[in-house]
């Protein structure tokens, strides 16, 4: 399964957050891994590399750039549909390519 290596890498990257209990940290790592995987599947690798995903206490923040408002809307919808997400903060910027 592809999520396992991603989950392991994210777990190491997150480290210890003092504002979250270990169980919530694990949930947030799971949210991030699932969301990144789904974004890559639905929007493509070229787009997902420009999107940063951060989950804290189930609140997901999407930041970075997308090519158009359709990609932005789709990314937000995917985030909202991800299990255990309680809210989505949209910090995405639409940058038109010439």
Mean pLDDT over all positions = 86
Cα radius of gyration in angstroms: 13 Å
Structural class label = alpha+beta
CATH architecture: 2-Layer Sandwich
How helical, in percent, are the residues?
A: 40-55%
Total domain units: 1
Strand content: 15-25%
Quickly count the helices: 4
User: What is the CATH topology assignment?
Assistant: Histidine-containing Protein, Chain: A
Listing every helix as H and every strand as E from the N terminus to the C terminus, the arrangement reads: HHHEEHE
Description:
- The chain is an alpha+beta fold and 98 residues long.
- 52% of the residues lie in helices and 22% in strands.
- It has a single domain, classed as Histidine-containing Protein, Chain: A (2-Layer Sandwich).
- Strands 1-2-3 form a three-stranded mixed sheet.
- Helix 2 runs antiparallel to helix 4.
- The radius of gyration is 13 Å and the shape is elongated.
- The mean pLDDT is 86.
